UniProtKB/TrEMBL annotation:
A GO CC term attached to the entry: cell envelope
InterPro entries: Bact_solute-bd_prot1 (IPR050490), SBP (IPR006059)
Protein location: Cell envelope
Swiss-Prot/TrEMBL keywords: Coiled coil, Signal, Transport
Domain of life: Bacteria
Transmembrane segments: none
Entry's family note: Belongs to the bacterial solute-binding protein 1 family.
Protein name in the entry: Extracellular solute-binding protein
Coiled-coil stretches noted in the UniProt entry, renumbered to this chain: 468-510
Source organism of this protein record: Paenibacillus dendritiformis C454
Taxonomy of the source species: Bacteria, Bacillati, Bacillota, Bacilli, Bacillales
Amino acid sequence: MNSESAAVDASWRPFLVLRHEERHSKGERPIYLLWNEREEKELRQKWKAAILLLIVITLLGGCFAEKPALEELGADGEGKIKVLYYDEGYFYREYGNTFNAKYPNIEFEVITTLSIQKDMKENGTTYEEEYLKLVEKHKPDVIMVGSASFEKLAREGKLYNLDPVIEQDSFDLDGYLPGLIDMLREPGGGSLYGLAPNFNTSVVYYNADLFREHHIDPPRNQMSWTELLELSSRFAGLGSGDDRIYGLSDEYGFADDLLFTLARSSSLRVLDAKGEKINFNTESWKEALEVTANAILGHTVYTVPLKPIGEGTILHSQTEQFFQGKLAMMIGSSSLIGDLRNRSKDKNGTEVNWSFVTAPVDPAAPEESGFAYVYDIYAIAADSPNTRATWEFVKYMNGPEMAKAKSRSFRGDLPTRVDYMKEVDGKSMEPFYMLRPKALSAHLWRGLDREFMSGFRTKFSNLVLKELKEMVENGKSAEEAAAAIEIEGNALLKQAREAVKAEKEKAGKK
C-alpha cells in the first residue's frame, strides 16, 4: 500500500457510537454506527455556524424591532391640543374638564365654528368651503367633522390613519354599534381616519295601551313598510271627528317627511350617483309616492294639511296626539325619548304605557337601518405636531369611560358603544342598537351640498307636497308626479347653484 493509500485509510478510523441504554432496555441488539472523522468535524462546524447565525439574528431583531406607532403618554404628559368644536364652554363641559382631571398638564386651545355662518353671508360661500378654510387657517389637531368634509379630508390625505395606534393600544373596536366602524372606514377606502362617540337613529314609538284597548297586536322589530302600514290600517275608522284615531305618523306629521322616511328604508337617493341631477323618475320613487299617497288617502297615516312650508313654519311634534290617545304609532329619533319621558301622562293625567321597536326595514336587507347617522366624527390632522397627546384625547372621547358617563345623562344622542345604554326608565334600548347603519353611499341626500339643505330643501319639499296633494285630491298618477318632481326639481337645483355662484362673484368684487 503506497503512502497515499495509507493516508486515505488512516482517515477512516472508525469509532463506535453505542446507543446502549436505549436499545438494551428494549432487549434489542446494540447498534454500532460507523462515522468518518472528517465528516464529524465538518458537521460540528456547521452546527457552530448555525448557532452563531441564530444569535446574530436575535440580536439584530432586538436592534431593528418595529418602533411603536406612538410613544406612551404618562399621567404627567404635557402638550397643547388645538380642538375644532362648536363652542368653547360646551367643549369643556362635555370633554375638556374630565380629560384635564386625568391629564392636568395638557392644555387645550378651542377653535369654534361659530363664525362660519357669518363668513358664509359675507363671502357668498358654502358651509363646507368656510369650514375647510377654518381648518386650513387654524390647523387644529382634533378636527370635528361631518361626513361630507370627512370624506374630502380623508381622500386628500389630510387626516391621520388611526389603524396603527388602535392596534398598538389594543383600543377596542368590537364594542361599537355593529357596522359603525365599517361605515367610518368607507370614506378612507378601508382605513380608519376618525371615530364617533355618539349617533342617532329612529324607531317606531307606540302607545301600548291603545293597542291593548282595541285588541290589536303591537308592532315588532324589523317590520317591513308593508307590514307596518297594514298594522296602522287597523286603526282606520276608529273614533270620529276630533277624536279620530290614526295608526301612524311621522314625528312632525309632514307628508314629504313620511315619503322620505319610507325612501330611507329602501336606500333611495334624491340625486344621481354623481350628485349632479335629481333622479326621481324611477320605478322605486314612483312606488314610494304611490304608497305614501294611498296611506294618506285611506287615513292609514296622519299628516298635517298638504300645503307649502314657509320659512317661518313652526314644527309641532305629534307627541300631543300620541298622549291623547289619537295616535297609535309615531316614527321619531332617539331625541324624542326626552319629550316622551317629560310628558308621560295622557289628557286625564293617567300614565301612558309607551314603548318602541325598530324603524321599518328593507326586506332585502333586514339587518340594516337607513336612519342611523353620526353628526360628528373626530379625526386627527395628519400634520399635527402633537399626535401622541391628541390621540390620547380622541381615544378618551371615544372610550368606554366616556360612553358610560354619557349614558348616565341621556339627552337624545346615543353612545356608539353598545354596552352602556341598556335601558331607559326600564325600557330596553335594544331596538336602537340591533340594526347596522347603511353605507354612507346609500344615504338619501348624498351628493347634495350643505348650502342647499335649507333654501333648496324647503323648495324641493314644497314641490313634493304639491305633487302628493295632486295625487291625493285630484288622482294624479305616480308616473306623472315623479316626472314632474324630477323636471321641476332639477330646475330648482340649477337655480340654487346659480344663486350660490352669483353670491361668490358678488363677494369677490367687494
